[in-house]
Amino acid sequence: MLNDYLPVADLAPESPLKIQGNLTGIPRKLKDFAADWHNANLKWAKENQAGFALCNNIGNIKIESFVGDESLPESLLELCDGLQSIIEKLHKLLEKMRQWYQSVVGIENLLKSQKKTDDIIFQTWPIRNFVQAAKELLSMYEKEFELKKTICENICHSENKTEILFMLAAWKHEPYLEDAVAVHTQAMIRETGHET
User: Fold this and answer.
1) What is the C-alpha separation between 173 and 179, in angstroms, rounded?
2) Burial code of 81-95, b = ≥16 C-beta within 10 A, e = fewer?
3) Whose CA, among 68, 126, 152, 185, lies 20 to 30 Å from 14?
4) How many separate helices (H) and strands (E) can be counted in the chain?
5) What is the pTM of this model?
6) How confident is the model at residue 8 (pLDDT cuts 50, 70, 90)?
7) Nearest 10 degrees: CA dihedral of 115, 121, 127, 131?
């Protein structure tokens, strides 16, 4: 009687995670996709820290100028140029994110044409989960980039201490990057087998 039941694992289709050797095709693309998003998060965080340090220095110089003489030091221009450079790096990263999103949408369209959109590609996710995660991540990063760009355009020209402090807090705390960034990224990493 006990021999009539087979373990569930024996009936499960072969997952790419169990396949020995290199992944190819869609599983390879999605595994790289997850790694790209993870690495992008790390690069964004690094640029965010560097940008905050520059904003903080700019803010300090501006605030000191409110109580002292009206002349601003030459170093302010250098700091503003540095902040603009950070914005350019973040913009390039955002463009890559847009390409990754379009790529995963393309994979979804391919699977739709093959009527395989409900197929589990790794462990538990069909393609729509990857698309949804990428869409939400991209949306958050686009909003955060626009905020940082606005701060970059305005912090050097601000004449108000409260405004400068607000911009510093907004840059540092990244209000548009919700906890979902870490959740989506970590979920993709685990789903694709980068972490178990």
Assistant:
1) 12
2) eebeebbebbeebbe
3) 185
4) 6, 0
5) 0.86
6) very low
7) -160
- CB burial of 140-179 (b: ≥16 within 10 Å; e: otherwise) equals bbeebbebbeebbeebbebeeeeebeebbebbeebebbee
Tokens of 53: 């340090």
Q: Whole-angstrom distance between the N-terminal and C-terminal Cα of the chain? A: 35
List the structure tokens of 62. 């501006």
Q: What angle do CA 191, 192, 196 make, to 5 degrees?
A: 65
CB 182 within 8 A of CB 38: no
Cα–Cα distance, 31 to 16 (Å, whole number): 10
Residue type, 179: D
